[in-house]
Amino acid sequence: MNPSPLFRRILTGRDLFLASRLGLWLGLGLGLALARTAVAAPPVRVLVWDEQQPAQRRVYTNWLGNQIAAFLKTRPGFSVATARLDDPEQGLSMAQLDATDVLVWWGHVRNGEVSADHARDIVRRIQAGRLSLMALHSAHWSAPFMEAMNVRAREDALRVLSPAERAMAVIHETNLFANLRTPPKYTDRLSPSAIYRKPFDGPFEVQLTLPNCCFPAYRPDAMPSRVRVLLPKHPIARGLPAEFVVEQTEMYDEPFHVPAPDAVVLEERWEHGEWFRSGSVWNIGKGRVFYFRPGHELYPVFKNPDVLKVIENAARWMGTRE
Question: What pTM value is reported for the model?
């Protein structure tokens, strides 16, 4: 027996009411589920590595690296640990690196003491997408940053070849100077650079000059610099003013002998006309490297709120995988 038209209208109205209530509860449930997921998201695991040069203690009484770590511990979404050069395994054991998403690196006068094996292990992890590296100021000559730039230079040199040529290419590597940590002059040729040769009866040969990872001039005079945001929509620039001042810092001047960055987020300038690509990002395999220039252990650079904001933003972005 078919229901009457009136009964059908009553059923239809009731169904609509129930459907609306069901939709409301489903929406609330989905919202609560998303909220629980957001709360349960794992923190970004940061390891702040510091060579702990004694000169730091003039400004950072509890060491420069600990100053940065203490700040990051106040920010939500981070799990922060510290390590130093004089720790067992130079503070870079497999267990420590396995528990790290972002490695923040401060090195200066003891850069050469870090083992090449540790540097290669760090870069292999970067290439695999298991780790990201943030190199600060004088860490441009740190072992892991130099190794990362060497790897990127090789990738860039081969990228211009066809897949078939790339598979058979032979790379001959050299450096600008016998002593790797020699500052270049303005008149020195830029590195990295590549020369390609194609013999009649052999594979492509690539003569690759590896990046020097330095620059022709510096001035430790504690004069201020102006840092300008070039990419305001980049995650590293989130919440930063369009320009900010670092009251006391050391000057570095271009050209910086590194592979072309994938993004230059920040540029720094001084009153005498020097400038520097002070916030640069490279993709290395599946991972990321960020170089942030402002610094010097004798100046309170890492007490500047904008400088610390850059470090926070970079650590959060590099340590979060979508």
Answer: 0.87
